[in-house]
What we know:
- The structure holds two protein chains of two kinds.
- Chain A is mainly alpha-helical.
- Helices cover about 75% and strands about 0% of the residues of chain A.
- In chain A, α9 (about 210-220) packs across α11 and α12 packs parallel to α14 (about 310-325).
- Helices cover about 75% and strands about 0% of the residues of chain B.
- Chain B contains 13 helices and two strands.
- Chain B has helices at about 1-20, 30-45, 50-70, 75-95, 100, 120-150, 150-160, 165-170, 175-200, 210-220, 225-245, 250-265, 270-275; strands spanning about 110, 200.
Amino acid sequence: MDFDADAGVREEPAEAGKLQLGNNSHQLAFFYHVRRKPMSNAIIPLLVDSLASAALIFFAAVGLTLVFSVLRVLNVAHGSLYSIGGYVAASICLFIASRQLNPYLSFAALFFSAVFVAVIFGPLIERSLIRWTYGKSEAVQILVTFGLFLILEDLQRMTFGVQSFYEDAPMRLLGTSSIGGIVYLNYQIALIAMALLVVIGLRLLINHTRLGRLTTAVVTDREMAQSIGIDTNKIFILAFSLGVFLAALGGALATPTSGVAPGLGADTMVLAFAVAAIGGLGQIEGAAVASLIVGLARVLAIYLAPSLDAVAPYLAMLAVLLIRPYGLFGSMTARRI
Amino acid sequence: MLTLAIAKGLAALGVAVLLRSGLISIGHAMFFAASAYGVAFLARAGVNDFGGLLVLSVLAAALVGAAVGSFLVRYRAIFFAMLNLAVSMVFFALCAKLYGVTGGTDGMPIPIPGMFGVAMAEPVFKSVLFYLSLSLMVLVGIAVQRYLNSPLGQALSAVHTNEIRLEYLGIPVWAVLLVAYVISAALAGLGGAIAGFAIGRVAPDFAFWTASGHLVLVAVLGGIGGVPGAFLGALFLELLHSVAASVTDAWNLIVGMALIIVIMFMPQGFYGLFSRKEASSL
């Protein structure tokens, strides 16, 4: 219970709840400027908003789902890796800004920080902790990764402090466009494009590369894969690192729009959970479709019933899981990636 | 502080009951919070008797548990965990957003109740609360022990081991689990009500998913082998907290490491250290 423990994660008890809900609304803060328009010509901005919101959630969720499908471990610490990606990206961007370097470097910084986090944390976590939980019960896996989550949350706090980081250079650089008199941010479009790129990239990786085929073999039958000489350890490290990379990339890409603050990891985690569950655990396309649903639900909630925006994703999750317990794309037995 | 440890121990005991059947709930903080909110609402409505508040709010948590449990016990493993999470997050978000009803993120105050018509000053109430919760802990502990040793409780471990065999024996697994779910919700509610009294305020953070995680953590730290485990876990965590807080503020870090070490090297938790007999590990 968290009265005291939480005050640790999110300093200033009085601010705790606000800060953390603040994140949610903050994350969508830049969607608000189109809200003045009457509902009738709000279709396009609504769509852009939903898609951009979906894209951000998608990065976190697809990493989670990928790791689950290959390693069969539900990584509760996934949200922390997302926020670490955000912190690293924001730090580098602030450094670039303070040294008056070419501001376009910040785009490279977003990408580089995701790679950095993946290279550092991916192999480390997989080798030390996750590997130990293979074949153990879900309870053990969830608890070990929850322990990791607690550790990472505190490490972040010790490294980056409790203030929020905000650096929107990449967003400002891309500027705005208007369709039919409605202004939206180009950064939103870039986010959507990146998410599409990730879906296509993962598909290509899985279906058309040797590594992808090896991974599919491991997912389908781990023992058989081992017995024909596939180095499953290598596959696991790579898959986990890729998951970390996607999470960190999501965090990095989210910073220009929403900033990072303590508590982001916990928020992202549950959202990614919801999305992965709606799509069916282990389903990449499922995660994509589910992100769309959750993004749309959130933005619709903001337009129609602002007080419900934080509830919408979970209501969607409940609705889907009660009807299809294994998610939209999931199935009970066969697990694809 | 010790009162809080007992409160958490009671709630963790609720989680431990479900863990017996292999079901892990990352959502029990909801019942914890529901009961604390129940106390706050009842107090606002004019109920000002400790016993009445406690019984009614635990009843409220049990009712919520029955409602939620009746459709959640159909699920197993990760889906059970996730649905609990989803329900509790809906609850959390509603508590945080419905400013007019629940006071939003500011939470609601819980006034000091009277006991048998006697009004008390805060320090007196705190110590009375401590002894009351201590005796409640013992009573409830014995009751839960009896429940776990009864056929209904034994069936929980059987669900974990082989559910289908249980169905063949003609035992309705659904009912077994629902009873366990309601009991565990009531236990979490009891803990929540006590915590509410001890803190004097309830906020949506009570129901946030990390709070649920901490409950599971306490249950596992203590060891799910027996009733004392949950309390041992809660006590250990509180002690660790006060020690750690005096040295460093990175207390989550220490708890996280302790959790991982315990799971890796003592799969039966602290209770396993004391109990040589075969305790049901995870």
